[in-house]
Amino acid sequence: MLTHRDKGFTLIELLIVIAIIGILAAIAIPMYKAQTIKAKLSEVITAVGYVSSAASTFYVNNDRWPDCSVSFTSIVDSLAVSVPQRRVSAMTAQGNPFTISTTINNISTSPLIDGDILIMVGSIGPDNAIIWSWDMTNSTLDSPYMPKQ
């Protein structure tokens, strides 16, 4: 036979379970937010990748970098590439070494990232190979969110 005392959880058991859930939530919520930001930044990285691929193709075909001005229209016209503008508010692609500068926008989970600049630089390496790298010093994006080299 069960007595009245053996029918439920004690107050201390319930408090321990609530404390464990609180600790797990305190760890999980910031990690979730960081992963959400990284997922949205992947759209920006993809847009930069489209432009860098088109610029590489242009360089291989013409032995020079394309002449693009500072607008989406010029990039689309010069490189025949579509640049998704959902998370990108501005993009420039010009110079030698070829520099793609992208202004990030619409990352609603973190307004601190909106307006940051992500820069990719293309240069010519040994054997005329095109080398693309992220400019860690001139990009204003926080280092935890910078793409890997």
How many helical stretches?
A: 2
- The secondary-structure class comes to alpha+beta
CATH architecture: 2-Layer Sandwich
Average of the residue pLDDT scores:
84
| Beta-strand proportion | 15-25%
Q: Give the C-alpha Rg.
A: 24 Å
Return the domain count. Answer: 1
Residue stretches low in confidence (pLDDT < 50, at least 5 long) are none
Regarding quaternary structure, what we see is: single chain
Return the CATH topology.
Answer: Glycoprotein, Type 4 Pilin
Describe it for me?
The chain is an alpha+beta fold and 149 residues long. The protein has one domain: 2-Layer Sandwich (Glycoprotein, Type 4 Pilin), CATH 3.30.700. The protein contains 2 helices and 4 strands, in the order ααββββ. The chain has helices spanning 11-62, 72-79; strands spanning 88-94, 98-104, 117-124, 130-134. Strands 1-2-3-4 form a 4-stranded antiparallel β-sheet, covered by helices on one side. Strand 3 (117-124) and strand 4 form a beta hairpin. The mean pLDDT is 84.
Keyword list:
40% helix; 2 helices; 149 residues; single chain; Glycoprotein, Type 4 Pilin
Blueprint of the fold:
Elements: H1 11-62, H2 72-79, E1 88-94, E2 98-104, E3 117-124, E4 130-134
Antiparallel strand pairs: 1-2, 2-3, 3-4
Task: Provide a brief overview of the structure.
40% of the residues lie in helices and 18% in strands. It is α+β, with helices and mostly antiparallel strands.
